[in-house]
Amino acid sequence: MKILVTGGAGFIGSAVVRRAIANGHEVVNVDALTYAACLENVAAVSDSSGYVFEHADIRDCDALNRIFETHKPDTVMHLAAESHVDRSIDGPKNFIETNICGTFNLLEAARKYWASQGRPETFRFHHVSTDEVFGSLGATGKFTEDTPYDPRSPYSASKASSDHLVRAWHETYRLPVVLTNCSNNYGPYHFPEKLIPVVILNALHGKPIPIYGNGSNVRDWLYVEDHAEALLLVVRKGEIGRSYNIGGENELSNLELVRAICGILDRLLPKTNSYAEQITFVADRPGHDMRYAIDPTRIREELGWRPSVTVEEGLERTVRWYLENESWWRALLERDGVGHRLGVG
Ligand code: NAD
Protein backbone atom coordinates (compact mmCIF):
# COMPACT_ATOMS: atom_id res chain seq x y z
CA MET A 1 0.00 0.00 0.00
CA LYS A 2 0.96 3.63 -0.44
CA ILE A 3 -0.61 5.04 2.70
CA LEU A 4 -1.31 8.67 3.42
CA VAL A 5 -1.24 8.73 7.23
CA THR A 6 -2.54 11.87 8.94
CA GLY A 7 -1.26 12.58 12.46
CA GLY A 8 1.75 10.32 11.97
CA ALA A 9 3.92 12.37 14.34
CA GLY A 10 1.54 11.69 17.24
CA PHE A 11 1.32 8.77 19.62
CA ILE A 12 -0.77 6.21 17.69
CA GLY A 13 -0.08 7.61 14.21
CA SER A 14 3.67 7.17 14.70
CA ALA A 15 3.17 3.55 15.77
CA VAL A 16 1.19 3.02 12.54
CA VAL A 17 3.94 4.70 10.48
CA ARG A 18 6.72 2.62 12.07
CA ARG A 19 4.82 -0.62 11.59
CA ALA A 20 3.66 0.19 8.04
CA ILE A 21 7.25 0.87 6.95
CA ALA A 22 8.45 -2.29 8.72
CA ASN A 23 5.78 -4.25 6.81
CA GLY A 24 7.04 -2.89 3.48
CA HIS A 25 4.38 -0.25 2.75
CA GLU A 26 5.07 3.29 1.57
CA VAL A 27 3.98 6.13 3.87
CA VAL A 28 3.23 9.81 3.33
CA ASN A 29 3.04 11.25 6.83
CA VAL A 30 0.87 14.41 6.93
CA ASP A 31 1.09 16.27 10.22
CA ALA A 32 0.68 19.90 11.32
CA LEU A 33 3.16 19.34 14.18
CA THR A 34 0.93 20.71 16.94
CA TYR A 35 2.03 20.71 20.58
CA ALA A 36 1.22 16.95 20.68
CA ALA A 37 3.54 15.97 17.82
CA CYS A 38 7.10 14.78 17.97
CA LEU A 39 9.09 13.87 14.85
CA GLU A 40 11.43 11.79 17.01
CA ASN A 41 8.56 9.28 17.20
CA VAL A 42 9.26 8.36 13.56
CA ALA A 43 13.03 8.95 13.57
CA ALA A 44 13.63 5.19 13.26
CA VAL A 45 12.00 5.15 9.80
CA SER A 46 12.50 8.68 8.51
CA ASP A 47 15.48 7.68 6.33
CA SER A 48 13.58 4.79 4.73
CA SER A 49 13.09 5.10 0.97
CA GLY A 50 9.33 4.51 1.38
CA TYR A 51 8.81 7.38 3.84
CA VAL A 52 7.92 11.02 3.10
CA PHE A 53 6.94 13.74 5.57
CA GLU A 54 4.51 16.53 4.58
CA HIS A 55 4.20 19.35 7.11
CA ALA A 56 0.57 20.30 6.49
CA ASP A 57 -2.63 21.07 8.34
CA ILE A 58 -5.82 19.18 7.53
CA ARG A 59 -7.67 22.50 7.89
CA ASP A 60 -5.85 23.60 4.70
CA CYS A 61 -7.79 22.28 1.67
CA ASP A 62 -5.25 23.44 -0.91
CA ALA A 63 -2.44 21.65 0.89
CA LEU A 64 -4.48 18.43 1.01
CA ASN A 65 -5.33 18.59 -2.70
CA ARG A 66 -1.66 19.16 -3.55
CA ILE A 67 -0.56 16.24 -1.36
CA PHE A 68 -3.02 13.82 -2.99
CA GLU A 69 -1.98 14.93 -6.46
CA THR A 70 1.73 14.75 -5.68
CA HIS A 71 1.87 11.39 -3.91
CA LYS A 72 -1.14 9.53 -5.37
CA PRO A 73 -1.84 7.28 -2.35
CA ASP A 74 -4.09 4.22 -2.64
CA THR A 75 -4.94 4.28 1.07
CA VAL A 76 -5.70 6.97 3.66
CA MET A 77 -5.39 6.31 7.38
CA HIS A 78 -6.79 9.34 9.18
CA LEU A 79 -5.52 9.78 12.73
CA ALA A 80 -4.83 13.53 12.94
CA ALA A 81 -6.93 14.98 15.72
CA GLU A 82 -6.96 17.06 18.83
CA SER A 83 -7.06 14.19 21.30
CA HIS A 84 -6.96 15.36 24.94
CA VAL A 85 -10.37 15.49 26.66
CA ASP A 86 -9.17 17.97 29.30
CA ARG A 87 -8.00 20.42 26.61
CA SER A 88 -11.38 20.04 24.85
CA ILE A 89 -13.09 21.26 28.02
CA ASP A 90 -10.91 24.39 28.22
CA GLY A 91 -10.85 25.15 24.47
CA PRO A 92 -13.31 23.23 22.28
CA LYS A 93 -12.77 25.38 19.16
CA ASN A 94 -9.64 23.57 17.95
CA PHE A 95 -11.46 20.26 18.37
CA ILE A 96 -14.31 21.39 16.15
CA GLU A 97 -11.94 22.83 13.55
CA THR A 98 -9.52 19.90 13.32
CA ASN A 99 -11.67 16.89 14.20
CA ILE A 100 -14.82 17.91 12.31
CA CYS A 101 -13.83 20.48 9.66
CA GLY A 102 -10.43 18.85 9.09
CA THR A 103 -12.07 15.46 8.54
CA PHE A 104 -14.52 17.09 6.13
CA ASN A 105 -11.60 18.63 4.19
CA LEU A 106 -9.79 15.31 4.05
CA LEU A 107 -12.92 13.49 2.85
CA GLU A 108 -13.43 16.06 0.12
CA ALA A 109 -9.78 15.97 -0.99
CA ALA A 110 -9.88 12.15 -0.99
CA ARG A 111 -13.16 12.10 -2.94
CA LYS A 112 -11.84 14.53 -5.55
CA TYR A 113 -8.62 12.55 -5.99
CA TRP A 114 -10.47 9.17 -6.00
CA ALA A 115 -12.81 10.46 -8.74
CA SER A 116 -9.81 11.69 -10.76
CA GLN A 117 -8.40 8.14 -10.63
CA GLY A 118 -11.65 6.58 -11.92
CA ARG A 119 -13.13 5.72 -8.51
CA PRO A 120 -11.13 2.50 -7.91
CA GLU A 121 -12.80 0.02 -5.50
CA THR A 122 -9.35 -0.77 -4.09
CA PHE A 123 -9.00 2.76 -2.64
CA ARG A 124 -9.54 2.96 1.13
CA PHE A 125 -10.30 5.82 3.49
CA HIS A 126 -9.78 4.52 7.03
CA HIS A 127 -11.11 6.77 9.77
CA VAL A 128 -9.58 6.12 13.19
CA SER A 129 -11.92 6.93 16.03
CA THR A 130 -12.53 6.28 19.70
CA ASP A 131 -14.90 4.29 21.89
CA GLU A 132 -15.72 7.57 23.66
CA VAL A 133 -18.33 8.28 20.95
CA PHE A 134 -20.54 5.66 22.66
CA GLY A 135 -20.71 7.58 25.95
CA SER A 136 -20.45 6.05 29.40
CA LEU A 137 -21.30 2.52 30.60
CA GLY A 138 -22.61 1.46 33.99
CA ALA A 139 -21.13 -1.47 35.89
CA THR A 140 -22.03 -4.00 33.18
CA GLY A 141 -22.25 -4.27 29.38
CA LYS A 142 -19.81 -3.50 26.57
CA PHE A 143 -19.78 -1.28 23.49
CA THR A 144 -20.53 -3.09 20.24
CA GLU A 145 -20.53 -1.55 16.76
CA ASP A 146 -24.33 -1.18 17.13
CA THR A 147 -24.24 0.77 20.40
CA PRO A 148 -25.99 4.13 19.84
CA TYR A 149 -23.72 7.18 19.83
CA ASP A 150 -23.91 9.24 23.03
CA PRO A 151 -20.80 11.47 23.23
CA ARG A 152 -20.50 13.57 26.37
CA SER A 153 -17.34 15.70 26.03
CA PRO A 154 -16.38 18.24 23.36
CA TYR A 155 -13.66 15.77 22.27
CA SER A 156 -15.95 12.76 21.93
CA ALA A 157 -18.69 14.88 20.31
CA SER A 158 -16.21 16.10 17.69
CA LYS A 159 -15.04 12.53 17.01
CA ALA A 160 -18.65 11.33 16.78
CA SER A 161 -19.36 14.09 14.25
CA SER A 162 -16.39 13.02 12.16
CA ASP A 163 -17.57 9.37 12.23
CA HIS A 164 -20.97 10.49 10.90
CA LEU A 165 -19.31 12.48 8.10
CA VAL A 166 -17.22 9.47 7.05
CA ARG A 167 -20.29 7.19 6.95
CA ALA A 168 -22.21 9.83 4.99
CA TRP A 169 -19.41 10.10 2.39
CA HIS A 170 -19.70 6.34 1.90
CA GLU A 171 -23.50 6.25 1.67
CA THR A 172 -23.78 9.34 -0.52
CA TYR A 173 -20.66 9.23 -2.71
CA ARG A 174 -19.73 5.51 -2.32
CA LEU A 175 -16.24 6.50 -1.08
CA PRO A 176 -14.73 3.15 0.08
CA VAL A 177 -14.38 3.80 3.82
CA VAL A 178 -13.72 1.69 6.91
CA LEU A 179 -13.96 2.92 10.49
CA THR A 180 -12.49 1.77 13.78
CA ASN A 181 -13.41 2.76 17.33
CA CYS A 182 -10.74 1.90 19.86
CA SER A 183 -10.42 1.95 23.62
CA ASN A 184 -7.68 3.74 25.60
CA ASN A 185 -4.17 3.16 24.26
CA TYR A 186 -0.90 3.19 26.18
CA GLY A 187 2.75 2.45 25.41
CA PRO A 188 5.98 4.11 24.23
CA TYR A 189 5.84 7.71 22.91
CA HIS A 190 2.62 8.49 24.81
CA PHE A 191 2.55 12.28 25.20
CA PRO A 192 3.29 13.25 28.83
CA GLU A 193 -0.06 14.94 29.50
CA LYS A 194 -2.00 11.64 29.37
CA LEU A 195 -2.70 9.57 32.49
CA ILE A 196 -0.11 6.78 32.24
CA PRO A 197 2.93 8.97 31.42
CA VAL A 198 1.80 11.50 34.05
CA VAL A 199 1.76 8.72 36.64
CA ILE A 200 5.20 7.40 35.66
CA LEU A 201 6.86 10.81 35.46
CA ASN A 202 5.29 12.27 38.61
CA ALA A 203 6.30 9.10 40.46
CA LEU A 204 9.89 9.46 39.24
CA HIS A 205 9.99 13.15 40.20
CA GLY A 206 8.63 12.56 43.71
CA LYS A 207 5.53 14.62 42.89
CA PRO A 208 1.91 13.87 43.85
CA ILE A 209 0.35 11.30 41.46
CA PRO A 210 -3.08 12.81 40.68
CA ILE A 211 -6.19 10.62 40.41
CA TYR A 212 -9.41 12.30 39.31
CA GLY A 213 -12.35 11.82 41.73
CA ASN A 214 -12.16 8.57 43.70
CA GLY A 215 -10.34 6.61 40.99
CA SER A 216 -13.25 4.27 40.26
CA ASN A 217 -13.60 5.23 36.56
CA VAL A 218 -12.87 2.16 34.43
CA ARG A 219 -11.01 2.09 31.10
CA ASP A 220 -10.25 -0.83 28.74
CA TRP A 221 -6.50 -0.56 28.04
CA LEU A 222 -4.83 -1.57 24.77
CA TYR A 223 -1.09 -1.58 24.02
CA VAL A 224 -0.45 0.88 21.17
CA GLU A 225 1.50 -1.60 19.00
CA ASP A 226 -1.48 -3.97 19.10
CA HIS A 227 -3.73 -1.11 18.01
CA ALA A 228 -1.41 -0.25 15.10
CA GLU A 229 -1.43 -3.89 13.98
CA ALA A 230 -5.25 -3.96 14.16
CA LEU A 231 -5.50 -0.76 12.10
CA LEU A 232 -3.26 -2.15 9.36
CA LEU A 233 -5.36 -5.31 9.32
CA VAL A 234 -8.67 -3.44 9.08
CA VAL A 235 -7.45 -1.18 6.29
CA ARG A 236 -6.39 -4.22 4.22
CA LYS A 237 -9.13 -6.71 5.07
CA GLY A 238 -12.05 -4.80 6.59
CA GLU A 239 -15.34 -4.70 4.71
CA ILE A 240 -16.09 -1.42 2.95
CA GLY A 241 -18.57 0.74 4.86
CA ARG A 242 -18.15 -1.30 8.06
CA SER A 243 -16.83 -0.27 11.47
CA TYR A 244 -14.78 -2.38 13.87
CA ASN A 245 -14.45 -1.94 17.61
CA ILE A 246 -10.93 -2.53 18.92
CA GLY A 247 -10.20 -3.17 22.58
CA GLY A 248 -7.83 -5.05 24.81
CA GLU A 249 -10.41 -6.66 27.13
CA ASN A 250 -8.23 -5.28 29.92
CA GLU A 251 -10.56 -3.34 32.18
CA LEU A 252 -8.96 -1.55 35.10
CA SER A 253 -10.18 1.23 37.36
CA ASN A 254 -7.87 4.25 37.36
CA LEU A 255 -6.87 3.43 40.92
CA GLU A 256 -6.00 -0.19 39.99
CA LEU A 257 -4.01 1.08 37.00
CA VAL A 258 -2.03 3.61 39.03
CA ARG A 259 -1.32 1.06 41.76
CA ALA A 260 -0.10 -1.42 39.12
CA ILE A 261 2.32 1.18 37.70
CA CYS A 262 3.57 2.05 41.19
CA GLY A 263 4.13 -1.68 41.85
CA ILE A 264 6.24 -1.99 38.67
CA LEU A 265 8.31 1.07 39.66
CA ASP A 266 8.75 -0.34 43.19
CA ARG A 267 10.36 -3.41 41.55
CA LEU A 268 12.38 -1.68 38.82
CA LEU A 269 13.54 1.40 40.74
CA PRO A 270 13.03 0.73 44.46
CA LYS A 271 13.19 3.50 47.05
CA THR A 272 12.58 3.42 50.79
CA ASN A 273 8.80 3.79 50.52
CA SER A 274 6.34 2.74 47.82
CA TYR A 275 5.55 5.11 44.93
CA ALA A 276 1.89 4.43 45.78
CA GLU A 277 2.30 6.75 48.78
CA GLN A 278 2.43 9.65 46.27
CA ILE A 279 -1.15 8.95 45.08
CA THR A 280 -3.33 12.03 45.60
CA PHE A 281 -7.05 12.31 44.84
CA VAL A 282 -7.94 15.55 43.02
CA ALA A 283 -11.18 17.21 41.81
CA ASP A 284 -12.91 15.10 39.18
CA ARG A 285 -13.15 16.00 35.48
CA PRO A 286 -16.56 17.57 34.67
CA GLY A 287 -18.79 14.97 32.97
CA HIS A 288 -16.16 12.25 33.57
CA ASP A 289 -17.41 9.08 31.82
CA MET A 290 -17.65 6.25 34.35
CA ARG A 291 -16.75 3.18 32.33
CA TYR A 292 -15.67 2.19 28.81
CA ALA A 293 -15.44 -1.44 27.67
CA ILE A 294 -15.17 -2.80 24.15
CA ASP A 295 -16.69 -5.98 22.78
CA PRO A 296 -14.11 -6.91 20.09
CA THR A 297 -16.05 -9.94 18.76
CA ARG A 298 -16.38 -8.56 15.22
CA ILE A 299 -12.69 -7.84 14.60
CA ARG A 300 -11.74 -11.14 16.28
CA GLU A 301 -14.20 -13.33 14.38
CA GLU A 302 -14.14 -11.59 10.97
CA LEU A 303 -10.49 -10.57 10.76
CA GLY A 304 -8.81 -12.91 13.28
CA TRP A 305 -7.27 -10.09 15.35
CA ARG A 306 -6.51 -10.35 19.03
CA PRO A 307 -4.10 -8.38 21.22
CA SER A 308 -0.65 -9.91 21.65
CA VAL A 309 0.27 -8.20 24.91
CA THR A 310 -1.41 -8.54 28.32
CA VAL A 311 -1.87 -5.35 30.32
CA GLU A 312 0.72 -6.56 32.86
CA GLU A 313 3.35 -7.06 30.11
CA GLY A 314 2.38 -3.86 28.32
CA LEU A 315 2.60 -1.71 31.44
CA GLU A 316 6.01 -3.15 32.33
CA ARG A 317 7.30 -2.50 28.79
CA THR A 318 5.92 1.04 28.98
CA VAL A 319 7.48 1.83 32.35
CA ARG A 320 10.83 0.45 31.15
CA TRP A 321 10.59 2.56 27.99
CA TYR A 322 10.06 5.79 30.00
CA LEU A 323 12.97 4.88 32.28
CA GLU A 324 15.22 4.38 29.23
CA ASN A 325 14.05 7.38 27.18
CA GLU A 326 14.38 10.42 29.41
CA SER A 327 15.73 12.57 26.57
CA TRP A 328 12.46 11.98 24.67
CA TRP A 329 10.09 13.02 27.44
CA ARG A 330 12.17 15.71 29.16
CA ALA A 331 11.87 18.12 26.21
CA LEU A 332 8.11 17.60 26.01
CA LEU A 333 7.57 18.61 29.65
CA GLU A 334 8.34 22.20 28.59
CA ARG A 335 5.45 22.36 26.10
CA ASP A 336 2.41 24.55 26.62
CA GLY A 337 0.07 23.26 29.35
CA VAL A 338 2.02 20.07 30.06
CA GLY A 339 2.34 19.40 33.79
CA HIS A 340 -0.61 21.68 34.67
CA ARG A 341 -4.10 20.60 35.65
CA LEU A 342 -6.38 21.27 32.67
CA GLY A 343 -10.10 20.83 32.09
CA VAL A 344 -11.50 21.68 35.51
CA GLY A 345 -14.41 23.45 33.83
P1 NAD B 1 -2.02 12.59 19.49
O1 NAD B 1 -2.60 13.82 20.10
O2 NAD B 1 -0.87 11.93 20.16
O3 NAD B 1 -1.52 12.92 18.00
C1 NAD B 1 -2.31 13.67 17.12
C2 NAD B 1 -1.43 14.08 15.93
O4 NAD B 1 -2.28 14.79 15.00
C3 NAD B 1 -0.29 15.01 16.31
O5 NAD B 1 0.91 14.59 15.69
C4 NAD B 1 -0.74 16.37 15.78
O6 NAD B 1 0.33 17.21 15.38
C5 NAD B 1 -1.59 15.95 14.60
N1 NAD B 1 -2.59 16.99 14.29
C6 NAD B 1 -3.44 17.62 15.15
N2 NAD B 1 -4.17 18.54 14.51
C7 NAD B 1 -3.79 18.48 13.21
C8 NAD B 1 -4.19 19.18 12.05
N3 NAD B 1 -5.12 20.16 12.10
N4 NAD B 1 -3.62 18.87 10.86
C9 NAD B 1 -2.67 17.90 10.80
N5 NAD B 1 -2.23 17.23 11.87
C10 NAD B 1 -2.79 17.51 13.06
O7 NAD B 1 -3.24 11.60 19.29
P2 NAD B 1 -3.28 10.01 19.43
O8 NAD B 1 -3.49 9.65 20.84
O9 NAD B 1 -2.13 9.44 18.69
O10 NAD B 1 -4.63 9.69 18.66
C11 NAD B 1 -4.62 9.49 17.25
C12 NAD B 1 -6.03 9.22 16.78
O11 NAD B 1 -6.53 8.06 17.44
C13 NAD B 1 -7.02 10.34 17.08
O12 NAD B 1 -7.88 10.47 15.99
C14 NAD B 1 -7.76 9.86 18.31
O13 NAD B 1 -9.07 10.39 18.35
C15 NAD B 1 -7.77 8.36 18.08
N6 NAD B 1 -7.83 7.52 19.29
C16 NAD B 1 -6.96 7.73 20.32
C17 NAD B 1 -7.00 6.89 21.43
C18 NAD B 1 -6.02 7.04 22.57
O14 NAD B 1 -6.12 6.32 23.57
N7 NAD B 1 -5.02 7.91 22.48
C19 NAD B 1 -7.94 5.86 21.49
C20 NAD B 1 -8.81 5.69 20.42
C21 NAD B 1 -8.73 6.52 19.33
What is this structure, in a nutshell?
This protein has helices spanning 11-22, 61-71, 85-90, 93-116, 154-173, 195-204, 224-237, 254-268, 297-303, 311-324, 326-332, and strands at 2-6, 26-31, 51-55, 75-78, 124-130, 177-182, 185-186, 209-212, 218-220, 222-223, 243-246, 251-253, 279-282.
Explain the overall architecture.
By secondary structure, the chain is of the alpha/beta class. The chain has a domain at 2-187 and 221-248 and 293-310: Rossmann fold (3-Layer(aba) Sandwich). It has helices spanning 11-22, 61-71, 85-90, 93-116, 154-173, 195-204, 224-237, 254-268, 297-303, 311-324, 326-332, and strands spanning 2-6, 26-31, 51-55, 75-78, 124-130, 177-182, 185-186, 209-212, 218-220, 222-223, 243-246, 251-253, 279-282. It has a seven-stranded parallel β-sheet, sandwiched between helices. Strands 7-10 form a two-stranded parallel ribbon. Helix 5 links the parallel strand 5 (124-130) and strand 6 (177-182). The chain is globular. The mean pLDDT is 97. The site of nicotinamide-adenine-dinucleotide has 31 residues, from helix 1, helix 4 and strand 5.
